[in-house]
Design brief:
Order of helices and strands: HEEEEEEEEEEEEEE
Strand content: 35-45%
Number of helices: 1
Helix content: under 10%
């Protein structure tokens, strides 16, 4: 253990901007090679389409270690942060089963910081795997969502780190017992003027002009 005076000297040296050796160790973040796993509506009744039999999954690797499994395309939000959807490997074994049984499900969206290796699960408002398929633009996600009662389909635009959705408008009634699949076509973005369009399967198309706002995502180091 260093004497107090030497410990103070090291602390002062690390506080100096010129002390490069005291900088945080950079992290290596990457998505690995894709592989196809058995997948069905039986294993993922909310997230799977009726005709799906396989789910393409990729490992999210931080410093050579697999931290999560992901599915679908990633979207770069900034030069250092991206979003990708989590793939969950769920234990489907009954207490009476002798052999292990596992199923894959589509999970929440993840926000990944390449510099720090930090992974954060995003809580998108009214996002429901049965109806929601997010289409990203900048730090916005557009998708059809369900209200808390599960009987009303909404057009939703959420912004990362914002407390409230930028848009939440009724589209059509929703009947879970007779739901179309998919519930909506992918949302369509327009840059200038900022606009997003939705097409529910059982309703009229709707377009909304948006008042854009600056990104509210704070990446580690932004406040220093």
């Amino acid at each position: 253990m260093l004497p107090p005076k030497y410990g103070l000297a090291v602390a002062l040296a690390c506080a100096s901007p010129a002390a490069a050796y005291c900088a945080a160790k950079p992290h290596a973040v990457a998505l690995g090679a894709a592989r196809h796993e058995p997948y069905s509506i039986e294993g993922d009744p909310a997230g799977a389409q009726k005709d799906e039999t396989q789910l393409s999954v990729r490992p999210l690797i931080v410093d050579t270690k697999v931290k999560e499994w992901t599915t679908g395309d990633a979207h770069d939000v900034t030069a250092r942060s991206f979003v990708v959807r989590r793939a969950v490997r769920l234990n489907d074994s009954l207490p009476t089963d002798r052999a292990a049984r596992w199923v894959w499900q589509r999970g929440p969206w993840l926000l990944v910081d390449r510099d720090t290796g930090k992974i954060t699960a995003l809580h998108l408002p009214d996002f429901d795997p049965a109806v929601s398929s997010a289409v990203w633009f900048r730090d916005y996600a557009a998708y059809c969502g369900l209200n808390s009662g599960g009987k009303q389909l909404f057009a939703v635009v959420a912004q990362i780190a914002a407390r409230r959705p930028l848009l939440a408008k009724k589209l059509a009634p929703w009947d879970a017992a007779h739901r179309p699949s998919p519930a909506c076509a992918p949302a369509v973005w327009q840059r200038d003027p900022l606009k997003v369009s939705f097409q529910p399967a059982d309703g009229a198309a709707a377009s909304f002009d948006l008042v854009g706002s600056s990104a509210v995502l704070v990446e580690d180091g932004d406040e220093e």
